[in-house]
Specification:
Blueprint lengths: L1 E6 L3 H10 L7 E7 L2 H11 L3 E5 L7 H10 L5 E6 L4 H10 L3 E4 L5 H20 L17 H12 L8 H6 L9 E11 L9 H17 L4 E6 L4 E7 L1 H4 L2 H19 L1 E7 L9 H16 L1
Parallel strand pairs: 1-2, 1-3, 3-4, 4-5
Antiparallel strand pairs: 6-8, 6-9, 7-8
Length: about 300
Amino acid sequence: MIKVLIADDELVVRIGLKTTIDWEANGFSIVGEAVNGKDAIELFHKLKPDILVTDIKMPIMDGLEVIRQLKSEHCLFKALILSHYDDFDFARKAINLGASDYILKTELTEQKLLASLGQLAEQLAEERQLEPAQPLQPDESTPVTTHAQRARFLRKVLEGELNEDTLPDFLEQRAPLFDQPCLIVACLNVEKQADSSQDIESSQFHQALDNLSANLLGRKGWSHTLVQTVSNTYYLVNLPCEDADSDTTLSEGFESLRRNIEQFLNVQVSMGISRPTRHADHLPRLVNQAKSAFLANMS
């Protein structure tokens, strides 16, 4: 069972959360309830939950400070933020601090809650299984299946160590890399706003960007791998072909991603995307297409 701690000062919200889904039937167990941030910290240390479902505004200590303190203690957990519309700035700060997902209280449904919890449980299980990164070589026999391994795979393509000549043999020796049949690459340039008062470390920003992207793309059934280079950020997006074949779906999906990144992280984003492919060995071609589209949009 995945252990869940709920922190919210509103009794009606706590009751609603407990009754919205059949927790145990879906592999989750509510191990405790906190009515303020101070209680949440104490219960977290006592109960050691896997997922913290927390309100942002609470008495004594707010949800942001709870996340900040637990992250500073290097606790391994996932945080799901519950927010009101007027809590937008707080939600953005929470994402920057490492919160993994957010749901507006006015839009809380069984489907959204289960989807978010399932995604967080998968991320947590993956992180707990990860071993220190090893150099990825074309003759390795280990399947490239985890998020971190796919990121190393993409980086090797970006650095030219894997190309269209070596990729077929590399891919043939491995289990399937991706859950969906189609792939797209996006190239982004992310610039901090000149009037931004936020000072986020590079590693924190990368995590915030990754968390926000997982939330936004995951709602569409798309998965992503994120790699940052010296000059740009690259997404390898894995999605159903019916979405990839629709120019409207692609345009709306990536425009929503760009707009939300700008809004939540207070940055300016320029983006170029490749054409979709069903062939993973075409990945270097997609990278070049995304770069060209990015440069064309910048000119």
